[in-house]
Design brief:
By secondary structure, this protein is an alpha/beta fold. The protein folds into 2 domains: about 35-135 and about 240-300, D-Maltodextrin-Binding Protein, domain 2 (3-Layer(aba) Sandwich); about 135-230, Osmoprotection protein (prox), domain 2 (D-Maltodextrin-Binding Protein, domain 2, 3-Layer(aba) Sandwich). Helix content is about 45%, strand content about 15%. It has 13 helices and 10 strands. It has helices at about 1-25, 45-60, 75-85, 95-100, 110-120, 145-150, 180-185, 200-210, 225, 250-255, 260-270, 275-285, 290-300; strands at about 35-40, 65, 90, 125, 135-140, 165-170, 190-195, 215-220, 230, 245-250. The strands form 3 sheets. The chain has a 5-stranded mixed β-sheet. Strands 3-10-4 form a 3-stranded antiparallel β-sheet. The protein has a two-stranded parallel sheet with strand order 1-2. Strand 6 (about 165-170), helix 7 (about 180-185) and strand 7 form a beta-alpha-beta unit. Helix 2 (about 45-60) crosses helix 11 (about 260-270), helix 2 packs across helix 13 (about 290-300) and helix 12 runs antiparallel to helix 13. The longest helix has 25 residues, at about 1-25. The chain is globular, with a radius of gyration of 24 Å. The termini are far apart.
Length: about 300
């Protein structure tokens, strides 16, 4: 009996050791491929998305560097992607297709994502799943201006724009969905344009302080409600589908497969319009750190 017990004890100890080794191996960083380097645009929402991606991937053992607030698509993000300095970007599918490739996005999210994928795959990138949440460019005025001029939709600016100053990103005069689109679709010519930032604090404060009369902000920006601004309805459909989808290098996909792509696709599946707007408010208006807000959202949704 003593021999039997000794054999069982030895077998149990050996099994425990094997299980311990296996468990430790499960915590190792995924190997065989490059580190993940995320680049986000020069505004808060993109930084939040970059932090969500970073934290979700790190929870699965990936080594991740997030280069936040890099700047615009044309000047920084696309060159950095193509040079290999970054290999993941939270992209807006409509703007990505139009600005990067000169394509024609539509309000159809599937068609717009597929067209963007067809372009990026020629250069060794792929577009993963997109979020239900969208963040389109929006035309915003103060509550006082909306009341004084009777504004509820963008076409209401016809006859008023020439006496108003528009504020937005420096690229607005060239971007087809900004000043050129407002001119061609709505027939709007503003009296002046003030170059500020991409839907960030400079634009918000300029609108609130009366330096500009009309602002280009993002439709999911929580500051619109918080400041009592009025988002004018895009009644002529200038803006296309703008769901957020990760553009990633094919090298990452080939190296890690579903271990990598499932993490980002699971993030996209969970991100609602309400959640995106709330996170923007917490960071952009309440002053919370993007990292903290991103981590809380991931925990709330069972993703870390």
């Amino acid at each position: 009996m003593r021999i039997f017990r000794r054999t069982r004890t030895l077998g149990a100890a050996l099994l425990a050791f094997v299980l311990l080794v296996a468990a430790c191996g499960g915590d190792e960083e995924p190997g065989g491929g490059p580190d993940v380097v995320i680049g986000s645009f020069g505004f808060g929402e993109s930084e939040i998305m970059g932090e969500i991606y970073r934290l979700a991937l790190e929870a699965e053992g990936f080594t991740v560097d997030h280069k936040a607030q890099l700047g615009s698509r044309e000047a920084v993000i696309n060159p950095a992607l193509r040079s290999g300095e970054i290999n993941v970007v939270p992209e807006y599918i409509g703007s990505g297709l139009e600005v990067t490739f000169g394509g024609e996005p539509s309000g159809d999210s599937d068609a717009t994502r597929n067209a963007l994928q067809a372009e990026w795959e020629k250069e060794g990138f792929t577009v993963l799943d997109y979020t239900p949440a969208q963040d389109k460019n929006g035309i915003v005025v103060t509550g006082e201006t909306a009341t004084a001029l009777g504004l509820s939709k963008v076409s209401d600016l016809v006859g008023e724009a020439q006496s108003l100053t528009l504020g937005g990103p420096p690229e607005c005069p060239e971007r087809p969905r900004c000043i050129p689109g407002l001119q061609s679709v709505y027939g709007l010519t503003f009296g002046d344009f003030k170059a500020l930032d991409s839907g960030g604090p400079l634009t918000v404060e300029a609108l609130a302080g009366g330096e500009i009369d009309v602002a280009t902000l993002f439709t999911s920006d929580g500051v619109i409600a918080a400041r009592g601004f009025v988002l004018l309805d895009d009644d002529q459909g200038l803006q296309p589908a703008e769901n957020i989808a990760p553009v990633v290098s094919q090298e990452l996909v080939d190296s890690y497969g579903a271990t990598f792509t499932d993490v980002l696709n699971n993030v996209s599946a969970k991100l609602s319009q309400e959640d995106l707007t709330l996170m923007n408010k917490l960071v952009g208006y309440d002053g919370e750190a993007a990292t903290d807000v991103a981590r809380q959202w991931l925990e709330d949704n069972g993703l870390i």
